[in-house]
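Lecture 7 notes: from sequence to structure.

We start with a single chain of 166 residues. Read the sequence below before looking at the structure.
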Amino acid sequence: MKTILLILLSAVSLFSSNGYAADKTPLPSHGIDYPLGWQTWSSIAMSHRTDNNTVRAILGNDVAIKAARSGEHSPWPDGAILAKVVWKAGELAHWPKAIGPKDFVHAEFMFKDSVKYADTYGWGWARWVGAEQTPFEGGMQVCVSCHTPVKDNDWVFTEPGWFPTN
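Now the structure, written as tokens:
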């Protein structure tokens, strides 16, 4: 009897935690599903925007990392996903001569698919705002307008950082 009870409790726990995780997944932005697991992606670069005092970590999925490390990102290959994780910049408590991430602002993504996103120059654009990861629904044209100055760089501001191979 104890074995049956343990199996039933385990099954309920498994289904409850899966349901909870599904409930916590943010809704799509611009019809694009939230990219689960992006928090474990590797770094491509970082940036500091002086116009709005933010710092950004630019991450990539495996396709984007391979392209960035090999220098084959002009244009970026289909399947690449770039993530830009944004925080307000602030002085570091134990290193006052440096700035680092403070309040989280948003996570935004570019999904390269030259066929699916042909109307937006080969990129799908999505953003989730704040700690709640609320979908931004201002329209992909907002993203395209911002990225127009880099249209000749495949619509990407990021310049991948060099990483040693050894």
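The radius of gyration is 19 Å. Keep this in mind for problem set 3.
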